[in-house]
């Protein structure tokens, strides 16, 4: 047989040559905005559902407290936390419920932290006064007195027992299409809520407002009882928003990104929230340009400020310089955060991975 030559396919025509355009390098500002919108921002539907569920649970809890303890003048529960103030919720999973403890100011007085055994200006004591004229029983809160002081521990223990043992959470959860579990092992007053579309952790804080102070029943760990933590949260949010309104600034936007970055790095999680807000407020006293187009510059500057504070081991509260917001961090935590942020001041993109 004759050998046939192998068939050769004609070569495909060469595509027309196009000068390749090198990809444009994104600026730090573009990277920050993209990282936030794609990876850190909470979807609106998720945030809305979380708030709706928390309000429904709050209504049920308020009703229970009024029926169970009509003699205790609790105020109306209110929601608090990053999801409501726009300063940096990364997930719709943490909401605080504030439970006002309404005191008769004629029967109670505040003792500053420096004058207590704790010697910590961030913690106050609430002392019962005039017991000789208004004996125990004159205030409905007298049942929570330990050694003449309103005990945050005793109040929390009482509420903890109610949350765990007295409220029919399966029935409430059934009404809301959720499963609600009080956290038994935690000293905090915490509820875990599971819904098809969202999982929530709700923390209840008894709060006393007296003499322009906002005090939470959030005592430190340890042997000292009866202490109330001064909260600057409302003042922080208000001050940042006031400054932004005054100069059309981007402090809130900067904080949203900073909070998102810190919450997504295990080593930096304890910086999120108040420490970042106070760092931005301190920086606002010396840096005037907070316009949107300067966002990346201010982001880097906040990192540098934080490195400086961590080197000293001291971040003074913007509202009371005697308070060190790093006082409860260990040396190891401070060193680890300081090293990570120091590295990031030269290459901020490291924090976006």
Automatic annotation (TrEMBL):
It comes from the Eukaryota. Residues 251-337 form the Mab-21-like HhH/H2TH-like domain. This is MID49 protein. InterPro entries: Mab-21_HhH/H2TH-like, MAB21L/cGLR, MID49/MID51, MID51-like_C. Gene3D superfamilies: 1.10.1410.40, 3.30.460.90. One of its GO terms (biological process) is mitochondrion organization. It is found in: Mitochondrion outer membrane. Residues 47-236 form the Mitochondrial dynamics protein MID51-like C-terminal domain. Its main location: mitochondrion. The keyword Oxidoreductase does not apply. The keyword Membrane applies. It comes from Syrrhaptes paradoxus. Keywords: Membrane, Mitochondrion, Mitochondrion outer membrane, Transmembrane, Transmembrane helix. It is a single-pass membrane protein. Pfam families: Mab-21_C, MID51-like_C. Residues 1-21 are annotated as: Disordered. One of its GO terms (cellular component) is mitochondrial outer membrane.
